[in-house]
């Protein structure tokens, strides 16, 4: 992501972050089986990662208890079109997305068993954040996402939280006491750089607190745990990087903990900003204090996806599908991400 408005696939700009004490090893391991709880999984993403997080939650709502979305618009907004992605799902010069059209798309997918059931979707807890000065993804799109979920949730006043921060731009806000260096932080309003915004706002704690209830605060000292680099080759899908990351608190090494999946935005993958996101978003400290593992999958840059975004407009499918199913259970990236979740939730004894 860049501080200027994006005008091409290069500009499908979207973000995220974290904090951890351990150093990831240079040779990636296989993603472990940790017997993580299957009934307390959340997914949170920023920008392209926010769009992808919503795709996952709508495709498999029965597999998630909570969804966090930062700086992104409504589910299926792009409908497989780069033109719509740029003109209605980032900027709005083509107008706001028509939620009735998206509702028809959901009903069609539901009839074809390409997304989860309405009953499971209605039970999600949802946290939505947007910067009021976001000039990459218009704030009105966050409002549209909230409106979409109000139509899906059983008790939206109790299950949905939408927060808009004044004087904040596009990215992932972090608290003032972050362990990140000043050079790793972007200006709260203008963004850019790593897209970790120096807004003095612990958005990681706010989101996890809404999705999972009262949480123990992070310890003041660095939390005991490991940041593990793992080989993503087992989950091969177009647009995935070679290496992903996993934060495992010391108390979770024997299993039995819960899982949060954290999806970076465009230009926030390790290839472009190193381990800044996976160390300094604030998620790791909360995870260590509350027996949660954090999975940080990684997208990669390519000719059709030069900013390393997650596939929310269909680039990973469009080479062979006229109507790409990237936003369904059949999506190549959504399938790969779910396979990672299933691996972590499997027993270590599983073959």
TrEMBL record:
Q: InterPro entries from the entry?
A: AB_hydrolase_fold, Plant_Biomass_Hydrol_Est
Query: Which superkingdom, per the lineage?
Result: Bacteria
Task: Write the signal peptide boundaries.
Answer: 1-24
**Which keywords are on file for this protein?**
Hydrolase, Signal
Q: Which GO terms describe its molecular function?
A: hydrolase activity
Q: Which PANTHER family match?
A: FERULOYL ESTERASE (PTHR43037:SF5), UNNAMED PRODUCT-RELATED (PTHR43037)
What is the protein named?
Alpha/beta hydrolase-fold protein
Give the originating organism. Halomonas pelophila
